[in-house]
Amino acid sequence: MGTKQHRGRVTRFHFVTVAAELFAAAGYHGVSTGEIVAAAGSNKGALYYHFRSKDDLVAAIIDEQHHRSIALVQRVTATDAPPLEQIVMLSHALGEQLQESALVRAGLRLSTELDHVPVHPYRDWIGACRALLDRAAADGDLHAGLDLDAVARFVIGAFTGLQQLSGLLTDRRDLPRRIDELWALLLPTLVADPGRRDAVRRARWARPIPVA
User: Do residues 20 and 58 make contact, with C-beta atoms less than 8 angstroms apart?
Assistant: First the structure.
């Protein structure tokens, strides 16, 4: 039973990764279930054994993308960097995910193309950003009187639009530069100490080196 369950999980994830490659390139309406089955080297019976519909498969891709993004939040917020630096680090780390992973690109693209867009990933990201802003405010790093709910919504909304535009114009090759520009514009509004702004803007997450 264990071997059969393992094969089932492998097959299911194979459909997710293959479909993600296609959706990342062509979007929800540009990919048919027949194309997914052909690219996976499988058949529709196997696809519908694991997923009730194309939308069910799409939901699995979005969930996997969100899982990876939240795992990134957990890794970055576990560092010793000040909370404001962690927000900047997260934006660049997610930018790297988008450049490197078709599954992440597909998840974010699909989450903006569906008729019924899932909102929980955006709420989770806004919540994570707001929590870091609260900590930054407690540290005295922010200007007094800021509406932190509005700042959190703006940061996530700006990043979402920025990565989409970068994808359309340069296939996200210029995304790191565009993220840096975002912070160059925003940090003077946020950071109380002008001498801290460059350090916050330069913050990057050093990914742990895998142990051989």
Answer: no
Q: Model's pTM, two decimal places?
A: 0.87
Sign of the Cα torsion 135, 108, 116, 13 reads negative
Q: What is the DSSP string of 40-74?
A: HT--HHHHHHH-SSHHHHHHHHHHHHHHHHHHHHH
Torsion of CA 207, 208, 209, 212, to 10 degrees: -140
Residue 15: is it exposed, middle or buried by C-beta count within 10 angstroms (0-12/13-18/19+)? buried
pLDDT tens string 19-35: 999 999 999 999 999 99
DSSP line for 104-158 = HHHHHHHHHHSSS---HHHHHHHHHHHHHHHHHHHTT-B-TT--HHHHHHHHHHH
